[in-house]
Amino acid sequence: MTPVCPLLSTGSSSMTTLSSFPRRWKYPHAVGRNTLLIAGLQARNNARVIFSGSLDFFSDAFFNSAVQKAAPGAQREYSIVIEQLSNGKWVPFDGDDIQLEFVRIDPFVRTFLKRKGGKYSVQFKLPDVYGVFQFKVDYNRLGYTHLYSSTQVSVRPLQHTQYERFIPSAYPYYASAFSMMAGLFLFSVVFLHMKEKEKSD
User: Fold this and answer.
1) Do the Cβ atoms of 137 and 149 come closer than 8 Å?
2) Contact at 8 Å (CB) between 39 and 4?
3) Of 53, 92, 84, 64, which Cα lies nearest the Cα of 147?
4) What span, in angstroms and rounded, lies between the C-alpha atoms of 21 and 30?
5) Residues 134, 103: contact at Cβ < 8 Å?
6) What's the CA gap between 194 and 201, in Å, rounded?
7) What ranges in 30-170 are assigned the alpha helix state H?
8) In 3D, which of 81, 147, 77, 78 has the Cα closest to residue 118?
9) SS3 for 32?
């Protein structure tokens, strides 16, 4: 069996499906780093061949494009669609007392959902606490079915490969490090060129 040499793989959270199938029948054919965007093979006669998933990889457009920076303090948005059956048709539900809780063990955020079009949504800033949280909607209203929705997410710090090259909040530390190096260099120059005066008899 000819071994496959992975040259470029996807991220750990990616998946590959066939777009020709209906959405309900879709199942990922390859998940995570098993999806190879560019792969190489070597035959028994030492011939080598490279398979590329797209011709765009041979263009410099991606390499020359600017890196998009994440906006600091960006708000996170949660949205949910709530409908009710009226006269045999599903119509948007009208209510102003639906609450969203952002829960770890206790709720860190509790706020009302605002109706926008046919869905309810709200924007809020995540707490500066790491852990596994839940977006939780627990709605009870007389005459209606109990509505419960829970979505689990993780709040974690960025990995060391996801930070910017130079973090603005660390500029004072950069300045202290470079000033220390400059001071050591000047001290070395002065010390090496300093000549003691000869003592006179």
Assistant:
1) yes
2) yes
3) 84
4) 16
5) yes
6) 22
7) 61-64
8) 81
9) helix
> Could you tell me the two tokens for 162?
């996801």
- In eight-state DSSP terms, residue 184 is H
pLDDT, tens digit, 9 for 90 and up, residues 24-39: 545 556 667 778 888 8
Give the whole-angstrom CA distance, residue 37 versus residue 57.
9
The residue assigned the tokens 């202290």 is: 176
Measured CA to CA, the distance from residue 138 to residue 102 in angstroms comes to 12
By percentage, how much of the chain surpasses pLDDT 70? 84
Residue 126: alpha-carbon gap to chain centroid: 14
**0.70 exceeded by pTM:** no
Distances (CA, A) of 64 to 7, 57, 61, 67, 163: 20, 12, 5, 9, 20
14: closest CA among 38, 37, 30? 30
Q: Specify the DSSP element, H or E, that contains 4.
A: strand 4-9
3-state secondary structure of 12: coil
Structural contact between residues 47 and 17, judged by C-beta atoms closer than 8 angstroms: no
Question: What's the pLDDT tens digit per position in 42-92?
Answer: 888 888 888 888 888 888 887 788 877 666 556 788 888 888 888 888 888
